[in-house]
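hey m, so remember when u said the tokens were messed up on ur end? i reran from scratch. heres the input so u can diff it against urs
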Amino acid sequence: MRKKILGEYHFFLSMPRDMRLVLITNMIYAFVLPVIDIFVGAYIMGSADKDPAKMVAVYQLCVYTGIPFTFLINGFLLKKIKISHLYSFGMLLSGISMLFMMTLSNIEMIGVSIAGFIMGASFGFFWANRDFLTLDTTNDSNRNYYYGLETFFYTITFIIVPAVIGWFIVQTKKNGWFDGNTSGAYQIVTGVVILLTIAASIVIHQHKYSNPKQKKFLYLRFDRLWKKMLGLASLKGMIQGYLVTAPAILIMTLVGDEGSLGTVQSISGILTAFILYILGRTTKPKHRIYIFSTGMVIFLIGALANQILFSAVGVIIFVLCKVLFMPLHDIAYFPIQMRVIDILSVKEKRSEYAYIFNHEFGLYIGRFFGLVLFILFFYISDEFALKYALVIVAVIQLISIPLAKNIIKYADKTVDEVKSEHPNPDALNLDN
């Protein structure tokens, strides 16, 4: 076992240094993401005096509105400010957003909206620069490994962090820490988040990364291949918009309190993470569509289990499927996206950031639709929003499978076209 672990470590060291540092930065920040993804919503649910579910939905809508706005601002700032500085600022801003929310005396619509927009801005700076750095430091042949390792670590932290914080919050109530006030526990968690973002910022500054060479990034017209990619992005955004609220509310309604959040997430087990690592380590670009399709089917199974059972057991099955679906989806989706950007940035002679920026609006349309759908379903009835709507969303997501397959096929065709028109096709490095 020790020899195997050392072998994997040496394989990691064989990767380019700039890629390794981006990965390490993301691994540290991975401890922050579960807090933001789960416990911010749980904090609002537990602290809001009225309509907590709608408060969570409004918070997430403001988060998703802040992201594309910040992608735009980031594009202009990249002309003058180092990308590592903007990347660090985004991570630090997430801690500031949580700190702002913890200082609110009352959880009301205005305060929640401001905190959500600040968090969206932090995600905007983080993801915009993270995506460009990933694109710049990897190639199509090592992206399965990159995302496999990254999602492996994200999955581990999404198991460990909720369990630890859930235990901490339960013990706070049980033992009367901070006078039994969970707000004090959340403030401690926020302090740890800020320390982690500082550590991640230090790591990313250990290498001098280059900003996008071409400064222009605003375009209205794109190749047909990119329009298909935007369609896939919208479907991905839709499921993000719906799932960012529904699971937490399901757990709070049918399972229990914040402590149960950590328990349910930890049930997913370490096995999922190792499967993801093995997939990233051993699979090739041609296997992405199979990974992608498997994730979609697993999500549908989870949604059906929740609808049929609609109990604590059904929620647990759904969350288990969700925890497996999301990284399987990402490990296939992001390399597909990056390959399309690789190809079209050469074909259309544009900055890679132009596609990263435009892609975010595809996601935003889907996220906005997903959240609005969630709110509308809640107006029909709470049970419909939590029971039947998940199956509707899961069935719609099945459209992604043939669309992703078509994108991969069309991308290969576009590579042939680009190479046939280029004077030195071997220099393009567009092969799998």
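this time it looks ok to me. The mean pLDDT is 83. if urs says something different then somethings off w ur setup not the seq
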